[in-house]
Design a protein that fits this description.
The complex is a heterodimer.
Chain A lengths: L1 E2 L2 H21 L2 H10 L3 H19 L3 E2 L19 E2 H5 L1 H5 L17 E4 L5 E4 L16 H29 L1 H4 L5 H22 L14 H37 L1 H16 L2 H18 L7 H36 L2 H8 L4 H38 L10 H12 L7 H28 L1 H4 L1
Antiparallel strand pairs in A: 1-2, 2-3, 4-5
Helix pairs in contact in A: 1-9, 2-16, 3-8, 3-9, 3-16, 6-8, 9-10, 9-12, 9-14, 9-16, 10-12, 11-12, 12-14, 13-14, 14-15, 14-16, 15-16
Chain B lengths: L1 H28 L3 H9 L6 H11 L15 H4 L2 H6 L16 H36 L4 H14 L3 H15 L14 H32 L2 H8 L4 H22 L10 H7 L4 H11 L2 H29 L1 H5 L1
Helix pairs in contact in B: 1-14, 2-3, 6-7, 6-9, 7-9, 8-9, 9-11, 10-11, 11-14, 12-13, 13-14
Chain lengths: 450, 325
């Protein structure tokens, strides 16, 4: 039975909107040309490949359903589990279900804690017990090195095969259609991703690639689940931010007078309040609302989802000021130009001037600030979750992973792998987003062209 | 110029009033004190009497805006709005959940916050401007390219990782400085070295890149070409002309944060156990102590507005065009 969480619906709406915008701008030179410029940069193409891999994981994780329970007798109506799963959970079912007792190191075959174990000869001893799943297929632990090496080799071979197929297919289709795009960079990025993912997948079939956490859950699975949270925060926030920022900024710059004063007052006031504190206060208030209205949120997944959505909304409501300020400045300049004056003289209405003349001419600022903001929101989520005002503690996110890992750092010997996994995935995501944003800025900013 | 400053100061008053209204709405209208009481007391053992007692202890048992039972001015002053929000203007913050006076607490914690924030600010500024000047000087070479890539990579690392990594390397592995804690006086040094270092390193990426853009923009201007045409050495152009003219955009970003240094740094202070205002705020957020959060929101806003005012004043000093208008 499919479940439509509010964030899922919004994410897919956003995907549809982006697709529609892409289709719309394909035939319009003033919109298509900057994108063509963006995709002529090697860095942009490579980082776009990385980002689309993250996006794929995030989108798979945004299709939720409640699995059907096995029917007790054939005639009974199908019953559904209370738990909400996503398609990604289904794909990664082996990772999700293979739980250990507690911590285990990456690729380990034994637990990280000593336990009372009964030996085969009946004596009791305190030792590190074998894991229930990690390396359980090994008869003799001495084979560990050979087995890992074999799996890595197999993974690499599979990756090479996939890569070869993808490159051939790309050469026949994409490269012929858009010959000016540096496909070499795309192939290299794809190769890098496959070279990492292939061995990881091969190893994950028999081991915990990034170890397990305190309750024995696979860290790689958590890291993959965190991607959706990051993407949701980075993109849905803009859904709230864009209309506010665009409307306020353009109105202030175009109408001037008291409208400008009121809007400037609004954003100076909002800006004056320290961001983290205002977010914290708002999130605390959302928390109070959720706690006092439990009947609105029957399942914990819905509660967590509402909190995620509320966080996006709060970040958006507090974050529009930067965009509004930029757009106000640009609209002030545009309103003085001859073609706007001419439109006035012809008696064109304000609404029409705004929609036909002002909005298309500030679109580049909107797009640039959109992509630039993304990585900021992803980083902010980690800090906010650390402070305790981010996502719901039951939502997997990079912030909650780091927060949990903080206590693990104090253990002796140290548990470092959750932190390492969160670091690696987050760094790759944010770096790709930053590099892509830079390329977009260079492509769209008219000042760079001259 | 005096009139200018007075005008800017007067302009701050409606903003402060607006902030006060926003925080009031957020803390008392979105969720009523009853909701907050219910959450603080725990959902299970809530009785109406317990809620009334909780509210009475904290002075939340009054009407929100208008007290019909009182007459004259008392009708407005004996309300939650007056007691909790208007009194913030008089720096009367009331008491925290642990019944300590918030104003006293803030005074005591300002010192450690400043001891951390001021060195991070000054050293960070010097380091960032130096790096940015270096990159701008070697612009369009491999040094510049790799510098920018390094900056972007450093920007992409969450500040949490800098702190955790630094604590692990320097305190846990090399045992150079204590991992966290604080003492007053000269002993504070050994506790502050690491957080300051981490604060500076964490800011290099975004900071240097931003200043590099400013310098490059400045270097594209006509007066730089003129200076070069006169036969000045590139170093003279950089230091005598570009650096001085780039001061104006640098000031915009820098002066506004100076008053906010009082607020301390939330994350760093709580990681290193420094008893400043940042960790005070974090503790209040985690304990859901609304009185403290409200006080910190107000102080933060006042300091930000002070920063805006300082920026305006500094413009009149640095940029003669503003002074003469």
């Amino acid at each position: 039975m499919p479940v439509f969480l509010p964030t899922d619906v919004l994410v897919w709406l956003l995907v549809a909107a982006v697709a529609a915008f892409a289709w719309y701008s394909r035939r319009r030179a003033h919109l298509a040309a900057p994108w063509a410029r963006v995709f002529r940069s090697r860095i942009a193409v490579a980082s776009a490949i990385f980002l689309s891999c993250f996006l794929l994981v995030g989108l798979l994780d945004s299709l939720h359903y409640r699995p059907a329970l096995p029917a007790k007798d054939p005639g009974a109506p199908v019953a559904y589990a209370v738990e909400v799963r996503s398609v990604l959970d289904r794909v990664l079912a082996p990772l999700r279900t293979r739980l250990e007792k507690t911590y285990s190191a990456p690729l380990a075959t034994r637990l990280y804690q000593k336990e009372q174990v009964e030996r085969a000869d009946g004596t009791l001893a305190r030792e590190f017990p074998r894991l229930a799943h990690g390396g359980a297929h090994l008869q003799d632990e001495g084979d560990w090195g050979a087995d890992v090496a074999r799996r890595i080799a197999a993974g690499l071979a599979g990756a090479a095969l996939l890569w070869g197929l993808a490159v051939l297919a790309g050469r026949a289709t994409l490269a012929r259609r858009w010959p000016e795009v540096p496909w070499g960079a795309a192939a290299a990025a794809l190769g890098a991703i496959l070279a990492l993912a292939g061995p990881m997948a091969a190893l994950a079939a028999g081991y915990h690639v990034f170890g397990t956490d305190r309750v024995g859950a696979d860290v790689l699975y958590q890291a993959l689940k965190s991607i959706r949270t990051s993407l949701v925060i980075g993109t849905l926030t803009t859904l709230v931010l864009l209309p506010l920022g665009i409307a306020a900024g353009i109105a202030a710059g175009y109408f001037r007078g008291w409208v400008d004063d009121a809007i400037q007052y609004a954003y100076t006031t909002l800006n004056s309040i320290p961001g983290v504190l205002l977010i914290a206060a708002s999130v605390l208030m959302v928390q109070v609302y959720v706690d006092t209205n439990p009947e609105l949120f029957p399942t914990s997944a819905q509660r967590a989802d509402f909190r995620l959505l509320a966080l996006c909304a709060i970040l958006g409501v507090l974050g529009w000021t930067g965009l509004a300020r930029l757009l106000r400045g640009e609209a002030l300049k545009l309103a003085e130009l001859e073609y706007i004056q001419a439109a006035h003289a012809f008696g064109v209405s304000h609404a029409r001037i705004l929609a036909r003349h002002i909005l298309p001419n500030v679109a580049h600022i909107v797009i640039i600030s959109l992509v630039l903001d993304f990585s900021g929101f992803v980083l902010a989520e980690a800090v906010l979750s650390y402070v305790g005002v981010g996502v719901d503690p039951s939502t997997t996110s990079f912030g909650t992973m780091i927060n949990a890992a903080r206590l693990e750092m104090a253990r002796e010997p140290m548990v470092w792998w959750s932190l390492a996994a969160a670091f690696a995935f987050m760094f790759a995501l944010v770096l790709a987003a930053n590099l892509f944003a830079d390329a977009v800025r260079d492509g769209f900013d008219p000042r760079v062209r001259v | 110029m005096f009139a200018y400053i007075v005008r800017r100061t007067l302009y701050a008053i409606p903003i402060l009033v607006g902030i006060n209204l926003i925080t009031f709405a957020l803390f008392f209208l979105v969720n009523t004190p009853d909701d907050v009481a219910r959450m603080q007391l725990g959902v299970k053992r809530v009785t109406p009497e317990a809620i009334e007692k909780w509210k009475a202890e904290r002075g939340y048992d009054k009407p929100l805006l208008f007290n019909a039972r009182q007459s004259g001015l008392r009708a407005f002053s004996d309300t939650i709005f007056f007691e909790k929000s208007v009194k913030l203007f008089a720096l009367d913050f009331g008491r925290a959940e642990d019944n300590r006076d918030i104003a006293n607490e803030i005074r005591a914690r300002m010192g450690p916050s400043l001891a951390l924030a001021v060195p991070v600010f000054l050293v960070g500024l010097a380091v960032n401007v130096t790096f940015a000047l270096g990159m701008a000087f070697f612009r369009a070479t491999y040094l510049d390219l790799w510098g920018v890539i390094l900056c972007v990579a450093m920007m992409s690392i969450s500040s949490l990782f800098y702190i955790i990594g630094g604590q692990y390397l320097i305190s846990k592995l090399w045992h150079l400085v204590p991992i966290s804690g604080y003492e007053g006086g000269v002993d504070a040094m050994k506790f502050l070295v690491l957080p300051v270092l981490i604060g500076v390193i964490g800011g290099i990426g975004a900071g240097s890149r931003w200043y590099r853009t400013l310098f490059l923009e400045e270097m594209g201007k006509d007066y730089v070409r003129t200076a070069r045409a006169k036969g000045l050495a590139e170093t003279t152009v950089m230091f005598r002309h570009v650096l001085q003219n780039a001061m104006i955009p640098i000031l915009t970003g820098v002066v506004v944060v100076i008053p906010l240094l009082f607020m301390g740094s939330l994350i760093t202070e709580s990681f290193f156990g420094i008893p400043g205002l940042g960790s005070y705020t974090i503790d209040a957020i985690q304990a859901q102590d609304f009185a403290v959060v409200r006080a910190m929101v107000f102080i933060g806003s006042v300091l930000y507005i002070a920063g805006l005012l300082l920026t305006d004043i500094s413009y009149t000093i640095v940029d003669p065009r503003v002074r003469l208008n």
